[in-house]
Amino acid sequence: MNDILLLMICKVLGGIGIFLLGMRNLSEGLQTVAGDRLRKLIGMATPNRFMAIGVGCFVTCIIQSSTVCTVMTVGFVNAGLMGLHQAIGIIIGANIGTTLTGWMLAISIDMWGLLLLGLAAFVYLFAKNEKVRYFAMVAMGIGMVFAGLWLMKDGFKPIRANPDYLEWFTKFSAADYAGLMKCVLVGCIVTLIVQSSTATIGITMGLAATGVIPFETAAALVVGENLGTTFTAYLASIGGNTGARRAAFAHIFFNVIGVIWITSAFHLFFLKLISFIIGNNPDLVIVDGTEYASFHAAREAGADVAKDSAIHFPYMMTAIAAVHTGYNIMNTLLFLPFTRLFARVLEAVVKDKPAKEAPRQTKLSKLMLDSPMVASAQSRKEVVYMGKVDREMFDALRAILVVDEINEDSVKALFKQEDKLDAMQTEITAFLTSLLSGEVPRSLSEEAQKQIRLADEFETISDYMTAQLKLYLRIRNAGIALPDVMRAELLELHDAVSEYFILVNRAYSSKDILVLTGANAHAEAITQKVRELRGRHVARIAETQLDPLLSTTFPDILVSYRRLKEHILNIAEVMVGKGGYAGKLPPA
User: What is the pTM of this model?
Assistant: First the structure.
């Protein structure tokens, strides 16, 4: 008996481990294949509750994880990219979308999952194309999910042949309300431990499909498992802002209220409704070709329920999947008319605490790291925004250069923009460093490294512009008027560098490196212009009596423009450094 118990434990634990790893590979593979389209999909969620629910359902179906979808949503709320009304709709939709996995498991291809796993593993190991490898990862994940479920079911089989084990499992019967709540609590706790409602539903299916627990107990466990999955989103919201906490509590309240009303109607009509939907008794079991009303009835009739090939539950897996879907759809229909009221209740319960929320310059949140592709897409948007701020600084600096009177507000605004870019670079670098510390695809790792470098270049450009401003202010504060000829030269150079920046920045924001055609020639022209202006200045000093401060400051400004050009060129080279041009800019 000890050998049987050991074998059972090995199979069950091994099956759970393979199942969880399969779900992880499936989710990560699908997220990678979907790319930043996930962020765009979530961004489509408007305050229209139907659209938001549809988006949440669809995204969860794509990534096969309501937890990831919910945590991402909390992250978007935390970053200010989404309002509470949108988040509530997405979270509700995610609860429906996650039920797709249960229907997949109901197919029950059993050991054929091993074949799919093996074939996909060979493709993943030997394919050179990264996209093909991630499609193979998805297939591996599916194969592991089914193989893990098959192992779990096989591990549970010895239980049904042992009266002592079966007697222990009868303690978790949902025959009355007290037993029902006990099963709900067990399902909740197990999901809290495993951190995957899909995995615990797989375990539940394995127990029910081998006759260890009846359908009503399995259904009660599924209800509890929906409640247990809310804990992950709550943990993710800790340390977040008020909006993030409200979104997490929306997930909790949705399921708590659902559990309250579904348990009240559990025996009254819910189980009967599920039986009606599937068109038969979920507990029906076939032993050696003979139908029995339940596994217990088969044992009482003397059927040999220990024979692996003799016993079959034709409706159990489908019925459990129907419970999962039915619970979430009915709960959604209950909440749908009251989403705005629900949001107002959350705003009243979870109070604003603005004083404790540190201001941030970017809309990045560590919660986005659960979906690396979404995280990378959002951080790229922040880098693009840095380029937009730099362009505004070019325009503001020119406006200061063309007039003699110093506008204090314009000067302060320029320095404030430089401070903003300093903070943005710090936040982007910290965010992407955290992203790179995890397991990410090679292409995403390269993109993250590029973004870190580009954020540094954009911030450095802002540093040089404020350095130029300080040089202008030094001249004016000394009461020295900038001669018209020198002002015209600087404006000409400024415009050339500004146009070069606009060219390169447009190439990055549009993801079109062909825009960089002739960028090298443009950079070289700026270098020649700096040399020409330096030569003119030297000749001017020899011919004209200039103020010593003006004589020394003007070359410093020229050097600053040349450094600006070099950092703009760095941006162009980073963009194509590992692309199809082997590190070279497109030829003119």
Answer: 0.71
